[in-house]
Every structure is written in C-alpha cells, then in structure tokens.
Design goal:
By secondary structure, the protein is α/β, with parallel strands linked by helices. The protein is built from two helices and eleven strands.
Length: about 220
C-alpha cells in the first residue's frame, strides 16, 4: 500500500513538473514585440487604406487585413520578426508583405517607426502618391511596389538606402528622369523600372553599380 501511495505521489509530481515546463515553454515561444511597433503597424495599414486590421503580437502574425474581412484570392499578408535581440527576449519586425489587397491609400511614412525593417513588398495594390522621403533613413534590403499607381519623380533620397539589393518600381506612373543618386546603391543586384513614364537616359553614376544583374 505504501509502495502504491509512493508511486502515485511520484506520478502526480511528474504531471505537475510536466505541466509547469509546458507552460514555461509556451510563454517562451511568445514573441516579445515592442508595443510601439505594434501601433506603427496599425498606422501603416490605415495609411495604405486597409479597413480591417488584426495583428497578433504574440506570434508576429497578421490575422486580418484588407478592404474586407475575407482575404482576396492570391493576396499575401505577412510579417516576419527577428528575435536575435536581448538574448532572444526581444523581437523586431523585419519583413512586411501586403501584396494583392487592392489597397487604395498611400505609401506610409510610418515605416520609419520600424527601425529593424529590412524587406517590404507592397506589390499589386492601388497605392497612389509617391515614395516618402522619410524612408531615406531606413536600412531596407528589399523594396517592391510592383503594379501600383504611384506617380511623380523618383525621389533622390532613395539613393541613401545603400543596403538595398532589390528595388522594384515596375508598372507604376513614375515620371521624369532617373536621379543620379541611385548610383549610390552599390549593393543593388536588381532594379526594375519598366512600364513607367520615365524620360532621359541612364545616369553615368550607374556605372558604379557593379553587381547589378537585372535592369
């Protein structure tokens, strides 16, 4: 009888420890995202014209975005977090994709509130206006606004985003000549500019884009 009671006690202890470990593991898997980045994402979605927005900060996942609650066919709404900060206890938004939602707003200046953002893809929307000059301070590697309604001249400030490896401005309504400052993008590998209303010739500064393979 004592042996049975002892075994029962050990079993109960095992269950308690297992549940405790499971709880701690679940908490550890939750992403610790700064609240200001969560607020910034909502501002960004609103500026881009989204009427619906639900973001799960604990999993770094967009749950609802767009003009309706139902996700359009072929659309992609995605965020990725980089959790290599503070020994893995703090995460930051590194990737933001809002593609194929027919969003009718503007490109959001609020992107600068996501200082660790490296990749944005806002392709296949109805975004208008031009590229915010505020983005010049960002550390983007990848930037695509393929198939939108952006217009005006390409801002020379883009030349300050020297980490860029991929820049896709194709199928918009950009006009004027290409800014010579784009020649500062020495890490650029892909530059897509077709189907716009650009005039003039390629700037001589483009000769410095030595690893550019797609133009």
């Amino acid at each position: 009888m004592q042996k049975l009671a002892g075994n029962l006690f050990l079993f109960v202890c095992f269950i308690i420890i297992a549940l405790s470990c499971s709880t701690h593991l679940g908490l550890a898997q939750l992403i610790m995202l700064p609240q200001q980045e969560v607020y910034a994402l909502r501002e960004i979605a609103t500026t881009m014209g989204a009427k619906y927005w639900t973001f799960n900060a604990g999993t770094c996942r967009i749950e609802t975005v767009g003009l309706t609650e139902k996700q359009p066919k072929g659309s992609e709404g995605n965020t990725e977090c980089d959790c290599n900060f503070e020994n893995g206890t703090v995460c930051h938004i590194a990737t933001l994709t809002l593609m194929g939602y027919s969003l009718p707003g503007l490109l959001p200046p609020q992107l600068v509130k996501l200082p660790y953002l490296r990749k944005i893809d806002f392709s296949y929307n109805y975004l208008s206006g031009t590229i915010p000059k505020e983005w010049a301070s960002m550390k983007l590697n990848y930037f695509s606004v393929l198939v939108n309604r952006l217009s005006g001249e390409i801002p020379k400030e883009l030349g300050n985003i020297t980490n860029l490896t991929d820049l896709n401005l194709e199928a918009n309504q950009f006009s004027g000549s290409l800014p010579t400052e784009l020649g500062n993008l020495v890490n650029l590998q892909t530059l897509m500019l077709s189907s716009n209303q650009l005039t003039g010739y390629l700037p001589e500064t483009f000769s410095g884009l030595r690893i550019l393979t797609d133009l």
